[in-house]
Amino acid sequence: MNIGIVTQVRVTSSRLPAKVLLTAGGHSFLEHHLHRLQETGLPVIIATTTNYHDDVILEVAKHAGVPVFRGSEDDVLSRFAGAARAHELDGLVRVTSDCPLIDPTIIAAGVDRWRSEKDPNLYISNCLERTYPRGMDYEIFSAARLYDAEERATLQADREHVTPYLHQNRSGEMRLLNLPWTGGGASYRLCLDTPDDWKLLDALFEDHAATGLNCAELVEILDTHPELSALNAHIEQKKLGE
């Protein structure tokens, strides 16, 4: 079974434009993200847009040895389906590129569980219920269910956010499984969406050697240094459809 990680990337983000190209620890946040994904041993595919602003993503991808699929800027669901078809995937791990510290061991464990279940209608995630810090999120599902969503989903939020049709079980055929975390830190933000997120991530990379740290070690740092987590504690996550 061919399972690949598909990460969505664009530089025209509203709250922090070109955020994935900002740097810390000597590399762009996109480079950090891709390196961590590659540590899973799974194929990694970038799904970006046909917008000329995203041409710059191709150079980063080429340097990292990661293939790129380009599709609709607004219909991200169709973009993911196109990436799956182009790379003949049977199953997908969906992640977003604003997660430069995503833990590859967490993703790998989720994929192992999904493989073992042998159920094409199974959707596995670690964020159906928030137990991990933001920035560790993944979703796993079959290409068959993705193609079904591509054909049937009509709401704008479904098309923009890829998976609501699946994890809200609009088809009535999905089996949902959340894999929780008991290590704490559910209120922490290790994602990159605002300038204050950037401040925290920069501090972690520059002052705390975050490049080589896993989720538990990152949570321990934030537990020990509350002044760090306070940098972006006030940020409200954008709601579905915003």
TrEMBL record:
GO terms for cellular component: cytosol. The keyword rRNA-binding does not apply. SUPFAM superfamilies: Nucleotide-diphospho-sugar transferases. Keywords: Nucleotidyltransferase, Transferase. InterPro entries: Cytidylyl_trans, Nucleotide-diphossugar_trans. Transmembrane segments: none annotated. It comes from the Bacteria. It holds the Pfam family CTP_transf_3. One of its GO terms (molecular function) is nucleotidyltransferase activity. Signal peptide: none annotated. This is Acylneuraminate cytidylyltransferase. It comes from Kribbella antibiotica.
